[in-house]
Amino acid sequence: MKSGTKDRKEALVGFFTNGWNYVTLAIVVFFGIFFLYPLVSILLHAVYDTSSHQWDVSQWGVFFGNKYGYYLKTIWNSLKVSFLSALIATTLGTVLAYILRTTKIFGSKIITVLLMVSMVTPPFLSSYAWVILLGRAGIITKWLAQIGIQYGGIYGFGGIIFVFSIKLVPLVNLYVGGALKQVDVSLMEASESLGGHGLSRFFRVTFPLILPTVLASATLVFMRVISDFGVPALIGEGYRTLPTLVYDMFTSDVETNEALAAVTCVITIVITTLIFLLQRYISSRKKIEMSSLRPVDPKRRGIGTEIISHILCYGLMILLIFPLIIIILQSFKDSVNVVMGGHWSFASYAEIFQTSSLLKSIGNTFWMSFVALALVVLIGVFIAYCNVRRGSKVTRVIDVIANVPYIIPGAVMGIALLFSFNNPPLALIGTFTIMIVNFVIRRMPYTIRSSEAILRQIDLSVEEASESLGCNKFKTFFGITIPMMAPGVASGAVMSWLSIITELSGSIMLYSVKTKTMSIEIFNSISTGYYGRGAALSTILMLVTTITLLLFFKLTGRKEISL
């Protein structure tokens, strides 16, 4: 008995003297307050009337019992758009990745950089660009009218799918291209020796090997589309998706129905979670371990194959980059309520740098993003280390919880934070704190995944050697482990940074006049017809993202960002 008591005391003392336990506890508290509590809060709002203090599920009946099927139709709208966009983007992205990996394409390095630039540009900017081109008063629309072709504009269901399908091709290319690098060329050579060529070889040998990554990419695109607010808000024109429905419910000037908005949020979370779990299940059953000793190198192909390959690559580049060029051109037009109207001038840029509120939005974007990124890297690296090096049930649960926000739409997360922190003692809505919390919670998964990946490649014996020479665990961590992790952490940190400075769907629910960011100012400018100002701010934002990418490539010597 005395021995057991002594062991328990030693275990208790060991727990309180181990600094990593305090780190784990701090992370648990952070996610408990700013993620789990908001989720519980939004669930309670869906089943409990806070004004009468009574259980109330009547809004569920309103959602599913609407005689016009309005709300159920919105779910179906979101699923249709997400599925079709994922299907098209995954198909095009997989084909593009295969071409770039196996065929010599003139200017492939430039194409890779442009793909990355396009990938980190927020989708709502792409939709804005296509409105300039194919809106009712768009450049191409007017030209079509001159030759007798009447076009109603890139609005509604078809326009949303078109923008998403093209915009998310680079994302699929990034992931599938990474998987193709792991395919050993000997497998293709063996297939070729057995008579397999072209499409036959691709579908029989290559595609089964990369299928888990293709499925993961498709799910990622699906999640991006179903959670996006900007694109359907700008070009939907009555075609409601779940994020726009939630936003309208909560911000309506006529009537705000918090309970119905909460019900919609819960249903959205359930749908995205089920899709994510389905993808994980399928991927785990089809998982194939690959180790490439001889990776596939691009080669010259037959003249016909090369022509088709170049047409496809350049065609996609035009669809991705030309709209962004149009935004830049629009920024030099001093037009209001007219697309590409007015005179060529620097008036929009002058307005930005002469208007304190617009300048403040730029400043807010940078300083909040830097603070958020510092927290993302710090917490993300701690989570990765605890999960990989100090794996336990608690750390694994933390790892799962920290990655869950990635699959929750930003508008839903924004409303959850609104429900939770709109009243004392934690009245944070409209403050910089809640904006930064939103950035940290939603954009941390990038850094966690990249940190865990690099940490698993670092031999534990290096840390053990440091500790055997007298360094404590924290000194070893900061002095040895962190420097060795830096190259891997950098990729996740860059993606986190780029996604933070372009974030819209969550922050549009949380901002106040003093906490506006560039993305919010751009969205509001476009929505109110200040096209020149919106384009100028968009150009500045695109310039920042491009410079960030180029600096990353220059400093690391890499040609792409891998996650």
List keywords for this structure.
single chain; 563 residues; mainly alpha; MetI-like fold; 2 domains; 25 helices
Describe the structure.
It is a single chain. The protein has 563 residues and is mainly alpha-helical. The chain has two domains: 73-329, MetI-like (MetI-like fold); 341-563, Orthogonal Bundle (MetI-like fold). It has 25 helices and two strands. The protein has helices at residues 2-17, 19-47, 58-65, 70-102, 108-120, 123-134, 139-146, 156-167, 169-180, 185-193, 198-227, 230-235, 242-251, 258-285, 303-330, 347-354, 356-389, 393-403, 410-420, 432-455, 460-468, 473-501, 507-510, 518-527, 531-556; strands at residues 48-49, 54-55. Strands 1-2 form a two-stranded antiparallel sheet. Helix 2 (19-47) packs across helix 17 (356-389), helix 4 runs antiparallel to helix 11 (198-227) and helix 16 crosses helix 17. The chain is globular.
End-to-end distance: 52 Å
Helix content: over 70%
Structural class: mainly alpha
List low-confidence stretches: 6-17
The CATH homologous superfamily name of the largest domain equals: MetI-like
What would the average pLDDT be, to the nearest integer?
80
Largest sheet: 2 strands, antiparallel
Beta-strand proportion: under 5%
**Silhouette:** globular
Domain unit count: 2
| Alpha plus pi helix count | 25
Q: Over all CA atoms, what is the radius of gyration?
A: 25 Å
CATH class of the largest domain: Mainly Alpha
Question: How are the strands of the biggest sheet laid out side by side?
Answer: 1-2
Number of strands: 2
CATH fold call of the largest domain:
MetI-like fold
CATH architecture of the largest domain: Orthogonal Bundle
Order of helices and strands: HHEEHHHHHHHHHHHHHHHHHHHHHHH
